[in-house]
């Protein structure tokens, strides 16, 4: 049965980039996307030339908001390292790790300084690699360094790929036997995606090409014989922050507080960004009991806005 809110374009069939099956063009709750009837993956169908802004990865002077946020950012990175340690089959600093789609290499650098000296990054963007080089990182390459890895991780990079099935198939050949994958992606089955739609924090059209659900990510990993698949719905760096920013997006320019705290470039001028950011902080503090209660409910019901998946190669 097709929901009344969903529409099928007759005569139009697509191939799902997750399960590779031919499917009808069935619209989803997210604009400009189609939902796969087999694996439930949601993907962009409107043909757009995906191009990052020239200054997307350029280093910029940190804002006051970002400087105040730095202790929390460091906490998030330390939590990432803990998650990575738990994902490894053996808790060894000698583990060989690849960060796929590592951007400017912040996490790679954090892992190296934490003792994981054999950490490498793969990043297709020349601007990002240049920034990494400027910051003294020499292990970030345009191509995957050909060796066997204990862990290959995707920190919100798999949703940027045109064909995740091809990507997972390729990286599997680089994993050691019983090597692990760690995949952090938005959860398109989340409560906030259903309610806020294109105002959802993790809806970033057209940069996010795939919107995974727990079912679709399990399907993708099972397809390539991964085992011990586990899904974590907590990961506050993306779940709690996602609830807050999605809520704010209903009233203010999209992701304005996130851009201020993370030191990302936004479409607002400095005064506008400062005004909206201050107002956002006041609202978050005022509604913090409601936000906390909502987050706990989403966590219990497994409807948070992002998921963290680990799996082991056969």
From TrEMBL:
Top-level taxonomy: Bacteria, Candidatus Woeseibacteriota
InterPro entries, A to Z: SAM-dependent_MTases_sf
Transmembrane feature ranges: 274-300
Name listed for the protein in its UniProt record: Methyltransferase type 11 domain-containing protein
Native organism: Candidatus Woesebacteria bacterium RIFOXYB1_FULL_38_16
The organism's place on the tree of life at top rank: Bacteria
Keywords, ordered alphabetically: Membrane, Transmembrane, Transmembrane helix
Pfam families according to UniProt: Methyltransf_23 (PF13489)
């Amino acid at each position: 049965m097709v929901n009344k809110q969903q529409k099928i374009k007759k005569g139009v069939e697509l191939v799902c980039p997750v399960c590779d099956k031919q499917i009808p063009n069935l619209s989803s709750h997210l604009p400009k996307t189609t939902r796969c009837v087999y694996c439930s993956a949601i993907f962009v169908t409107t043909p757009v030339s995906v191009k990052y802004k020239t200054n997307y990865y350029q280093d910029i002077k940190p804002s006051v908001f970002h400087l105040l946020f730095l202790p929390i950012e460091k906490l998030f990175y330390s939590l990432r390292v803990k998650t990575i340690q738990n994902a490894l089959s053996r808790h060894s600093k000698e583990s060989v790790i690849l960060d796929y789609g590592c951007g400017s290499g912040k996490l790679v650098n954090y892992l190296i300084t934490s003792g994981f000296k054999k950490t490498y990054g793969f990043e297709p963007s020349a601007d990002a690699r240049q920034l990494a080089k400027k910051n003294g990182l020499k292990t970030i390459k345009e191509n995957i360094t050909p060796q066997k890895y204990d862990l290959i991780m995707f920190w919100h990079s798999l949703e940027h790929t045109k064909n995740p099935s091809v990507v997972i198939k390729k990286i599997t050949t680089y994993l050691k036997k019983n090597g692990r994958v760690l995949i952090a992606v938005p959860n398109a089955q989340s409560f906030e995606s259903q309610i806020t739609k294109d105002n959802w924090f993790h809806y970033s059209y057209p940069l996010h090409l795939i919107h995974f659900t727990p079912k679709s990510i399990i399907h993708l990993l099972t397809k390539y014989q991964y085992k011990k698949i586990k899904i974590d719905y907590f990961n506050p760096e993306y779940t709690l922050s996602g609830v807050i920013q999605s809520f704010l997006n209903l009233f203010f320019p999209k992701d304005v507080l996130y851009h201020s705290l993370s030191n990302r470039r936004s479409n607002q001028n400095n005064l506008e960004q400062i005004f909206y950011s201050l107002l956002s902080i006041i609202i978050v503090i005022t509604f913090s009991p409601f936000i906390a209660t909502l987050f706990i409910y989403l966590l219990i019901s497994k409807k948070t806005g992002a998921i963290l998946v680990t799996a082991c190669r056969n």
